[in-house]
Every structure is written in C-alpha cells, then in structure tokens.
Amino acid sequence: MIYGIIIAILVILVCIMLLPVKAELFYKEQISLRILFLNIPIYKTTLKQNENKTSKTPEENAEKIEKNSKKLGEKIDAFREFYKITTRILKKYVSLEEIEIKIDFGTGDAPTTAISIGALWGVVYGLLGRISSICKMKKHDVQINPHYNESVFSFEGKCIIKSNLVYIIFIMITILMNIKSRKGKEE
C-alpha cells in the first residue's frame, strides 16, 4: 500500500516536471518578465530604470571607463568556458517560441539614415543568426522603420522562451556546478 502511494507521488512529480514552462520577456521603455506554467502566469516583474544619474567631469568618466574595461576583460575570459557549456545545454533543452523586434530610427539626414538602417539590418540579423545557432528558434519578426526627415530612436522587443521544468532544473544544477568548479580553480 505505502509503495503504491510513493510510486503514485513519483509519477505525478515526473509528469509535473515534464510540463512546459514559458518565459516572456518584453521591452518597451522598461523591461518586463512574465513566467507561465501551463500558460498560467506564476511570476511577473518589471525592472525600472535607474534615473538618479549624476553628472561627472570627463576625467572622472575616463577613470571609471578604464577601471570598468579592465574588469570587463577579466569577466569575458571567465565567461568563455561558461558560454561553451551553456550553449551546448541550451541547444538541447530550450527553444525560442517567438522573437519580435521593432526599431524606429532616423538621423534627420536621409543618406545617413539609409546607411544606418542597412547597418541595423545587418546587426539584427547577425544577432538572430547567432541566437539560432545557440537554441531552436521557431518564429521571428523584425521591423526596422526608417524616419528620413527626423531624429528618432525607439526600440521594442518581445521574446518567448520555452523549456520543461525538469530541463530548467538540470540547466541550473549544471550552471551552479560549473560556477563552483571555477571558483575552486581560482583559489
């Protein structure tokens, strides 16, 4: 009797673990994240932008940029190995259901705007190509609208990521083990 209950609980847990989880990421003047389990929202947050910007002298800005660029170089080196492992995992277990990008751009000068729009198309589709090599991408929609006679820049984006709960747990454990092993090598 007790074994039957334990087996039933394990079967129910395994079925729950195999159900899909979606994360929807939106950007329109602020970043919003919504996580859905069985298409039911279970978590929603909005990241507000920091508006307390203090003006600094050019010398202070140069020092800050130099200090941050050294830190960035160190972080990039540490990120390379992490990137290799996570991309291998993401290819197997995560899919992008939908990516939507809408950019309105204009410099006020028609020839400059035209050249810039071409460069934007190249950058956006280069990034989409890189993303599709990391994980499965089902649908994408890109709109880049030129404004030749006015100076404009606005960006809106939407991304829906889908995976199963068991894979998310597996990915998190793998990432945590990788971070722990890296810290052990540094010490």
Q: What is the C-alpha radius of gyration, as a whole number of Å? A: 22 Å
Shape: extended
State the secondary-structure class: alpha/beta
Ranges where pLDDT stays below 50 over 5 or more residues in a row are none
Describe the structure.
The chain is α/β, with parallel strands linked by helices. It has one domain (17-47, 70-186). Helix content is 53%, strand content 32%. It is built from four helices and seven strands, in the order H-E-E-E-H-E-H-E-E-E-H. Strands 1, 2, 3, 4, 5, 6 and 7 form a seven-stranded mixed beta sheet that branches. A hairpin with a 2-residue loop joins strand 1 (20-28) and strand 2. Helix 2 (58-93) crosses helix 4 (165-186). The radius of gyration is 22 Å and the shape is extended.
Topology:
Layout: H1 2-17, E1 20-28, E2 31-37, E3 40-47, H2 58-93, E4 95-107, H3 110-134, E5 136-137, E6 140-146, E7 151-164, H4 165-186
Parallel strand pairs: 4-5, 4-6
Antiparallel strand pairs: 1-2, 1-7, 2-3, 4-7
Helix pairs in contact: 2-4
